[in-house]
Write a structure and sequence with these properties.
heterodimer, A: 130 residues, alpha+beta, two-stranded antiparallel ribbon, 3 helices, elongated, B: 305 residues, 6-stranded antiparallel sheet, 4-stranded antiparallel sheet, 10 strands, 26% strand, globular, disordered N terminus
Chain lengths: 130, 305
């Protein structure tokens, strides 16, 4: 930027902003809310509680450098490199649930008995890139 | 595959395990290999929803028996105590059960012999069908659940003498000879607002359930009077304790993969406690750290003395 008298042909390039699009994608991988009612599935006749269920889901783009932020293994970054540099038919890492919480359900059995049961891995609570 | 004594594919303890009355025609491409089915009881009903045929049969689901309204009220209350509004099991619970089943008796024959001097004797035959209990559900506690009729005033003190017996005896087991099949006990309680009484019959029923008895047929005799002999109040005013036949509550630990195992999450939390490991002490045992800390503390205090 030594020719101070002349107006620059193009505005100065902001390298910081340029790199940000790679490190922090706009639609980044994160947990999204989703709530359903069992009546939508017509299961409310035998599922007494809960009335609504929020399984949540993961969606978004995975950055090229995942590691610490998403708790991804090193292999995820390796697969990213393979996809970008070597073979685009190898899928790039996906945004998927990493942790779950259980759900308690109260249902009526066909014989008329009632059961309370706790089921594992029913609600996504955290996302990762894998 | 988890039902006792049966290899029925869709009769499982998995979530969405009903409606099993619907005809299941799963696309062969979606069927799991036999070995994979055991831990994937959730999948068949989910596959039914996804397949076109499943959607049709889902809507024409066979009606099921409706439970007793009192039983339903009790289980809803249990649900509120056990889970948050979002349906997540409450973390502070220390119990090991992840399944509670409530059965109402299939048939009962009531014999009443009114004797005003001795109290109200109420004899009831109860038959419970436990087909829904799977082989992977292990019994932790069993309870007879009684509700009072509304005529009993709240805060009443009641003393009952109960006699419980199994009607049929099982002599098929050579290894474990039948133990005691009848018990007698007395109990005293105060009638609270909700008027529920739970009678623990675990030790009585455990041998029967352990031998995979599908039907439990028992006779229950109750003689109840108002008053408390320990308080030297006169026992009088016979009450009609069991207008409603009791329900049978089974607290179970479902060991299948889809059930929530509380001890697993507790063990995981203990392995990542968030506090730094002490340098001079051995590795903290996830199951026994409390005991070790106490013993180390005691040794330290003895040395100081």
């Amino acid at each position: 930027d030594e020719n101070l008298g002349e107006a620059p042909a193009t505005p100065p390039y902001n390298l910081s902003e340029y790199f940000k699009q790679f490190l922090f994608p706009q639609n980044e991988c994160e947990l999204h809310n989703f709530r359903l009612s069992f009546s939508q599935l017509k299961w409310d006749k035998w599922i007494i509680a809960p009335h609504r269920y929020s399984p949540q889901y993961c969606k978004g783009d995975c950055p090229r450098v995942v590691g610490h932020r998403y708790g991804s293994p090193v292999h995820t970054m390796v697969q990213n490199i393979i996809y970008e540099k070597l073979d685009s038919s190898v899928p790039k890492p996906s945004c998927v649930p990493a942790e779950y919480s259980p759900l308690s359900v109260l249902t009526i059995e066909p014989d008329g008995s009632i059961v309370y049961k706790e089921y594992e891995d029913m609600i996504a609570t955290k996302c990762t890139c894998r | 595959p988890h039902s006792r004594g049966r290899a029925v594919f869709d009769k499982t303890s998995g979530f969405l395990g009903a409606p099993e009355d619907a005809v299941v025609e799963i696309n062969p491409l979606l069927r799991l290999p036999k070995g994979a089915r055991r831990g994937y009881a959730l999948l068949p009903p989910l596959l039914k929803v996804l397949s076109d045929q499943g959607r049709q049969t889902w809507e024409s689901e066979a009606p099921r028996l409706q439970p007793d309204s009192r039983a339903l009220r009790y289980m809803k209350r249990l649900y509120k105590m056990s889970a948050t509004k979002e349906g997540i099991p409450k973390a502070h619970k220390s119990h090991l059960y992840n399944t509670v089943r409530l059965f109402t008796p299939c048939s009962e024959c009531k014999h009443r012999h009114r004797d005003l001097m001795k109290g109200d004797i109420h004899s009831v035959d109860l038959l419970f069908n436990l087909d829904r209990v799977t082989a992977l559900e292990h019994l932790l506690k069993s309870v007879l659940l009684y509700s009072f009729d509304t005529s009993v005033p709240i805060s009443s003190s009641i003393t009952c003498v109960c006699h419980l017996s199994v009607k049929e005896r099982d002599f098929s087991s050579q290894v474990c000879p039948s133990g005691s099949h009848s018990i007698a006990f007395s109990l005293h309680f105060e009638v609270r607002k909700r008027k529920w009484v739970e009678i623990d019959v675990t030790s009585f029923l455990r041998p029967l359930i352990a031998t995979n008895r599908r039907n439990i047929h028992m006779a229950v005799n109750f003689t109840c009077l108002m008053g408390d002999p320990q308080q030297n109040t006169k026992l009088e005013n016979p009450i009609n304790v069991a207008l409603v036949p009791p329900s049978l509550l089974l607290y179970l630990n479902d060991t299948s993969e889809q059930a929530y195992h509380r001890w697993n999450s507790l063990r995981h939390r203990r392995r990542n406690p968030g506090r730094p490991r002490q340098r001079n002490s051995p590795l903290v045992d996830p199951t026994g750290d409390k005991g070790k800390e106490n013993s180390q503390g005691k040794r330290a205090s003895r040395r100081r003395r």
